[in-house]
């Protein structure tokens, strides 16, 4: 039996459970993912559709589908948190890793679209590390 992990939005209105049976965490460095997250990359986990269970209704969920490319962003309309969404063939969920409240037991990382990594991103690991906001 797989361990169940909790996930949901920051506001707490949208919640889900998912089996801890992930194989890879994909770090997307493409321009589309940077734009849609407002960050240097998106981090997504894929899992079969049957392994995710929504714990409440999804009235607060907004689905944005790009009209020109196969690109989807799903988020809470109250807090803006990214949420899981089904692939176009409805076989798997793409789960924004940051929407998980619990830590997966074991997962391999894979960086993709590395040709689109910004120069400033390569310096992130050498940045000052601080627990609170730096002064």
Provide an overview of this structure.
β6 (61-65) and β7 (72-76) form a beta hairpin. This protein has one helix at 31-37; strands spanning 4-8, 15-19, 24-28, 42-48, 52-54, 61-65, 72-76, 85-86, 92-96, 108-112. It has one domain: Metal Binding Protein, Guanine Nucleotide Exchange Factor, Chain A, CATH 2.170.150.70. The chain contains 1 helix and 10 strands; from the N terminus they run βββαβββββββ. The mean pLDDT is 86.
CA-to-CA gap between the ends? 47 Å
- CATH topology (level 3) name: Metal Binding Protein, Guanine Nucleotide Exchange Factor, Chain A
Summarize the main sheet: 5 strands, mixed
- The secondary-structure element order is EEEHEEEEEEE
Based on secondary structure, the structural category is mainly beta
Q: Can you list the strand order of the major beta sheet?
A: 8-9-4-3-10
Mean pLDDT: 86
Q: What's the number of domains?
A: 1
Summarize the model shown.
The chain is mostly beta strands. It contains one helix and ten strands; from the N terminus they run E-E-E-H-E-E-E-E-E-E-E.
List keywords for this structure.
single chain; mainly beta; Metal Binding Protein, Guanine Nucleotide Exchange Factor, Chain A; 5-stranded mixed β-sheet; 1 helix
